[in-house]
Amino acid sequence: MRRYRVLAAASLLILPALLRGLWYYRGFYQPGEPIALPSFTEIEPPQPPLTPETESDAPAQDLSGKVVVIDRAHSNQFQLPELDTLTRALLTRGATLQEVNTGDEFESTSFGSSDALFSFSSRSLQTRLKYASAYVVVAPQSTFSEAEIQHVARFVSRGGRLLVVLDPTRGGGGIDIFGFVLSGSAQDVSSVNLLLEPHDLSFSNDYLYNVLENEGNFRNVFLSPGEPADLTGDLSQVVFYAARSVATRQGRAVLVGDDSTFSSRTDSGGGLAAAAASPDGRVLAVGDLTFLTSPYDRVADNSQFIRNLAAFLLGGDREQDLTDLPYLFTRPVQVLTSTAFPVQSETLRALQSLQASLTSRGLPMSLTAEPSEGHDLLVMALYEPSDETDPYLAPLDLTLPADQADGLLEVPGFGALDPKGIGLLAAIQDPERTTLVMLAEDEESLTLLAENVGQGFLSDCVFQGLHGLCKVGEGAGFQPEESFDFGFDFNTEEPAIEIPATIPAPPTPTPPP
Amino acid sequence: MQGQAQSSSGAKSVLLWVLLPLLAGLALATRVPRPVIGLIYLNDSIYAYTARDMISQLDYARQHPEVRAVVLVMDSPGGTVVDTEAIYLELARLRQSKPVVTMAQGMIASGAFYLSVGTDYVVAGPSAIIGNIGVISQLPPPPEVYEDLASTGPYKLFGSSRDAQLRSMEAIKQAFLQAVQLGRGDRLQIGPQRLLTGEIWLGTEALRMGLVDEVGSVSQSVERAADLARVAHYRVVDLRQLAELPPSVTYYFFYETPEGVLTPYPRQPGLYLLYVPPWEGG
Asked: In A187, A351, A352, B64, which residue has its Cα 20 to 30 A from A179's Cα atom?
């Protein structure tokens, strides 16, 4: 009996708590699988695939004399030291670097740490492209004028090399974040696409990204080499650090992303190019600037690609013709005059401007009676036979007024002309020497012609093949016997986009005994 | 007399064997607590003060048995990396003994989303903003030396190189991705390619992608927490009150322009798991 009582009491003791427990609790919480956490301690920041600098940067050949012009005239969003790796590679190969600035009427002064590498003077883009081998445009913000586009197109068509480098982080404009304005819009793209359009290249207003396989960040993309071989043959992988994509129809994709490399514009990808070359291989569009800067220049094959860029810039075979005056010469210049045109004070004044142009390129000028090897030659004479100068006129196939009954000057391509008020220019180029011939009817006209050439004042000239005719005074002018292509608009200083005939190298004239 | 004695003995017996045990039992039953579903609100970005408050409440929930489950009711763009990770790790400790449910009331972006994948179940409003997986940071300036400001190392003044900071961000992002993959497990319907874009999605989209478990309300998230904890007739209590926390401190986390306009950008440079919407002001 007592046992039952104890049992009942115990039940009554437990029952309320049990009922309350059952009222509130329907079971016990059982955590599922063990809670897995990220392996924080095992995740390490990705490290770049640095390539030790083993290959010597010694150039395969001396390319001294080649001039690379760097654009600073279009609100370019970069500092010269950022190009140090590229400029160093160019200088090592013997190139000369110049920059073209806004306001070419003013003399440039100081431009930062790389000043010593550059020679500054005040010349317009058009003038600089007359003697440049390559033109480099980096992250411009202002647009190129129609005239500039024509100058560059003509420069490229005559063998000049053009490198355009954009970077989506230097696009211009921007958004405000962390209290700072960060660039982001695409003024650079609209600026250069008109420049690149004649060369079948265009940048997209985008950036490339890869969230799966990247070099430390989604915008740092691995790129595989494409074509041409001289730019990519020795590469296996290049890394760009935020890059715009480049499109071309007939050109070649130089560096290409994989299938998971997307364009920010479409969020799709596959075979997108971050660098591309024009069909003729003379223009290269590169979508990133950062890879040129330290320490990114040492990642993967970036340094080799930079060397290849330097070789590309200096690898052109730049043709020159009379339109490049006064920058036609590449060697020290000797001036040879006929006895009928003795050098006088006015002549010296006229030659001074030409000498100044040559001096700015490091080329001395001297008068001579006996041209010697290793020099270019400037021949100045009147439209009269001359023992001193006639051997240099022979390749030009001229008929001088003295040799014609009607007293007209006959110039191939131009026909017979009244020589009054007309100066003649002719260039003869061969591997050993460049010869420029200046002829006019009288001393005054010839002096004026020399002065105009020295100043690059060629707006009163028309060029045709080997020859050019310039207005050097009042005269009857000339009436061409047949229509011919001037090569550019006679009424404007801006050359037309059409290319004048290439000057063949005639036989070297035999100097007089 | 004998009858009286028997009657008295019976009453004593009932008192001894029935009433006293019953009263004792009732008294004992009061020791069985009514279960509590604790609510932790986060209606701010995640930074030192909000993290301290949240951790205090999580700690309270872990140490008090009547709190049977926790619901994080969040409307947050995320915040600092370190504070987000600190809360995330405290959540993991709590989940070893109690279920935690996320209610995405307005926005659970970036760091707030990081927290949500560290919970057992995620309920989102249909148009709640979900996702924005990734890290942002302002990179330090390139190292320089100054004549009048001395330091003992090249990065003493700058913390790290720009490149190193970028790579640290990548490591943090990898941990974030792992947290999402481990937290969502088989429920995840999209891969890293999509996750790592940093996109934000609506609650309904996030449901299809497996980033949340249900589209619903706060009460539904509470019911789900109770289900997981297997409790009924529970109380729903703001844990801030239970933990007797002082009123939350207002801290100027976001940058305010000189004109007094509050921007969506942090005041101080650093590493952030933060959604920064486009802003045209300034």
From this structure: A187
pLDDT tens readout for residues B88-145 = 999 999 999 999 999 999 999 999 999 999 999 999 999 999 999 999 998 888 888 8
**Closest approach of chain B CAs to the CA of A214, in angstroms?**
10
**DSSP-assigned states of every residue in A253-320:** EEEE--TT-EETTTTEESS-EEEEE-TTS-EEEES-SGGGSTTGGGBTTHHHHHHHHHHHHH------
Q: Which residue of B has its CA nearest to A3?
A: B17
Structure tokens given for A306: 């930079």
Is-cis flag, bond preceding A512, omega within 30?
no
CA distances from A93 to A68, A70, A184, B192 (A): 12, 17, 36, 46
Return the structure tokens found at B116.
């949500």
Q: How many CB atoms lie within 10 A of CB A417?
A: 22
Residues of A in contact with B229 (CB under 8 A): 29
- The domain segmentation of chain A, as residue ranges, is 67-314, 322-471
Report residue A230 CA to chain centroid gap.
Answer: 18
Report domain extents, chain B: 33-274
Task: Tell the CATH topology of A322-471.
Answer: Chitobiase; domain 2 (3.30.379)
Tokens of residue A507, six digits: 């036989």
Question: Hey, what are B11's tokens?
Answer: 């009453």
* Chosen CATH of B33-274 out of 2.70.70.10, 3.60.21.70, 1.10.10.60, 3.90.226.10: 3.90.226.10
* Three-state secondary-structure class, residue A410: strand
Listed in sequence order, the residues at least 6 apart from B72 whose beta carbon sits closer than 8 Å to its beta carbon are: B40, B42, B100, B101, B102, B103, B115, B116, B119
In the DSSP assignment, the letter for residue A25 is: B
- The low-confidence residues of chain A, meaning pLDDT below 50, are 104-122, 476-513
User: B162-184 vs B81-95: helix axis angle to the nearest 10?
Assistant: 20
Interstrand relation of B271-274 and B136-137 (parallel, antiparallel or unpaired): antiparallel
Please name the member of A8, A40, A176 whose beta carbon is closest to the beta carbon of B282: A176
Q: What value of ipTM does the predicted structure carry?
A: 0.87
For the stretch B45-96, pLDDT in tens is: 999 999 999 999 999 999 999 999 999 999 999 999 999 999 999 999 999 9
Quote the Cα angle for A244-A245-A248, to 5°.
140
Distance CA(B59)–CA(A24), nearest Å, equals 23
Helix (H), strand (E), coil (C) string for A430-443: ECCEEEEEEEECCH
Interface of A with B in 219-278 (CB under 8 A): 260, 267
Which burial class, exposed, middle or buried, applies to B182 when counting CB atoms under 10 A from its CB (0-12, 13-18, 19+)?
A: middle
Query: CB–CB of A26 and B232 under 8 A?
Result: yes
Question: DSSP assignment, residue A402?
Answer: G
CB-based contacts of A398, cutoff 8 Å, min separation 6: A409, A410, A411, A412, A424, A426, A439
Among the listed residues B137, B103, B139, the one whose alpha carbon sits nearest the alpha carbon of residue B119: B103
